[in-house]
Amino acid sequence: MIASVTGLGWVTGAGMGMGGVENDFSMTTGELPRVRRDRVFDSPYPHFGRMDDLSRLGLAAIGLALKDAGLYEWVQKRDIGIVAGSVYGCLKTDMAYFETVMPDGGLMASPALFSYTLPNCFLGEASVCFGLTGTGYVINETSSSGMSSLHAGLAGMGGGEMERMICGVCDLGCPPEIAPAAIGPVGALFFVLEKIPESNRSPYGELRLDKRGIVFFNGKAIKTLVELAQACLVPSPE
After folding, report:
1. Which has the closest alpha carbon to 139: 155, 158, 124, 120?
2. Which domain, by its residues, includes 200?
3. Which residues pair with 165 in a beta bridge?
4. Is the pLDDT of residue 89 over 50?
5. Across 94-179, where does the E strand assignment appear?
6. Which pLDDT belongs to residue 216?
7. Number of domain units in the chain
């Protein structure tokens, strides 16, 4: 299966950004920045203020990736799928909700937090916000490489399930009450993959998934999504 990488967006401890505008991407273990609505949306999005932190994080990175690919604006809904990998999912939101359940026998349980106690909630928000009707699901990762989402997205495209996919990772990390440190860096990083690029913008390059399950970008094997982002952002030789 071969697909073009046409967009990428991220929110990490180093800040928010998207390809074509900023090349200072890095996935660090530092504290994540406050996700600013005006960095993603061209007009106010009323649902953003009530979302949990994981949903804001994922929605922002997906929106930036779509902008970079020239697919942010839409009139009719698009058959674009989303696959996201996550080590901890919505664990922080679950714990925050549980804290509201404990007092008074659950009488003060937060309905706002409860509505985000599934790790795929932000995929629904992205589908509504950006007019996406394709398959969407979250894969529980066991490492911070994020490659499971890329494998699944490319396999789905190769099987004719989708012509375009958004693949990436979204993680807030593990609450300190459970573990003192997260597995690897935290943040969100998403890529737009297309069989035939819709925009006139030049793609970053080609991804190929071979029969052994190895992913190649412009002929070079990649092992993590961070490697892929860094390879996309390398300036082209003049």
Report:
1. 120
2. 2-232
3. 81, 193
4. yes
5. 136-140, 164-171
6. 93
7. 1
